[in-house]
Amino acid sequence: MLHQIALSLIDYVGPMLAKNLLAHFGNAEDVFCASKAELMNVEGIGEKTANSILTTQALELAAQELAFIEKHKIEVLFYQDHNYPQRLRNCYDAPLLLYYKGTANLNHHRIVSVVGTRNATTYGKALCRQLSEVLKPFDVLIVSGLAYGIDSAIHKESLNLEIPTVGVLAHGLDRIYPAANKELATKMLQQGGLLTEFLPGNKPDRENFPKRNRIIAGMADVTIVVEASIKGGALITAELANSYHRDVYAFPGRINDEFSEGCNFLIKTNRAGLINHPKDLIYYLGWDEQQVKQQKVQSQLPIGLSKEEKMVIGTLDTQALTVDEISIALNLAQSKLAIILLTLEMKGIIVALPGKLYKLP
């Protein structure tokens, strides 16, 4: 863990360059054991960066941070770990490390991000309540940014309905911003969690919020914009979700309402689908059909399936996946997975598609 944290603290090395180093050397510890010549063989590493890696400063800082992390029982999620949010991992700019406290599964089978203005109106808060009520039966994890307004509203409604909810922070886990949400955050630790890429000691500086927004967009299947002005973090999050090829939907508002202007713009420019009612979302995502399909498949499953076979079937209950995606989701070696997939295909339980995709019938 020490070397993984240190890798994220090296001057001139961001997430993408760090991933190049990991791909080249295999693990974080070997990066720090490499010679200058070996480091400079890595794409993107020049003499200045190599010298920065060879100093002990990053390792010394990491040792200090690790002491705090262990004392406060913070979970460190490394980019290569199986419990790292896999949807986020598939994004080109995913953070190298995440810091987490909570009980929610960050690879929950359905994750919805909800974002909006800090100046939520009665209309926006009512939509959060209705949205939570509609999502409740579908076993979702709701993600937002623990800010004032829509973020706070959706977290509160989730807690009221016992829906797990995760707040993504723009600072370290040694503080809560805004401070008024400290009690809310404490409740979320028991029914969801708090997640950040920032080490303890990092303040909620302005430049941190767009970084926070990419995590909100990247770890979810779909992003919902409830209320938003034409400028602000909610529209940034929607743009990021679009860049990751994730679904984006927005509630429309009156044309002269400042905090519906952003939603109307997203819909008008085809950056978001229009939802007049939260039930529209369930229709667009096809969750009703998938739920019935899953129940039908489960009732038809033959007796005597192995634990791994059941795990594969459970992973395929909502969408077709590649061998790589199934392997990552279940932390199964591809050699072992290939045998399981072939067995299930021969039994007629799953179907193979072009492009090495597999799905339920």
Distinctive features:
single chain; 361 residues; alpha/beta; 9-stranded mixed β-sheet; 3-stranded antiparallel β-sheet; 47% helix; globular
The helical percent reads 40-55%
Strand and helix order: HHHHHHEHEEHEHEHEHEHEHEHHHEHHEE
> Quick one: how many beta strands?
12
Structural class: alpha/beta
Fraction of residues in β-strands: 5-15%
For the record, give the distance between the C-alpha atoms at the N and C termini, rounded to a whole number.
42 Å
Radius of gyration, in angstroms, nearest whole number = 22 Å
**Averaged pLDDT:** 90
DSSP summary: helix tally: 18
Biggest sheet: strand arrangement: 1-2-6-5-4-3-7-8-9
The global form is globular
- Can you tell me the residue ranges where pLDDT is under 50 for at least 5 consecutive residues? none
Quick overview:
This protein has helices spanning 2-7, 15-25, 28-33, 36-39, 47-54, 57-71, 86-89, 122-135, 150-160, 182-190, 208-218, 233-243, 261-268, 278-285, 287-300, 307-315, 323-330, 334-346; strands spanning 75-78, 97-102, 111-115, 141-144, 165-168, 192-196, 222-225, 247-250, 273-274, 321-322, 351-353, 357-359. With 361 residues, the protein is an alpha/beta fold.
What does this structure look like?
There is one protein chain. The chain has 361 residues and is α/β, with parallel strands linked by helices. Helices cover 47% and strands 13% of the residues. Strands 1-2-6-5-4-3-7-8-9 form a nine-stranded mixed sheet, with helices on both faces. A three-stranded antiparallel sheet has the order 10-12-11. The model has no long low-confidence stretch (mean pLDDT 90).
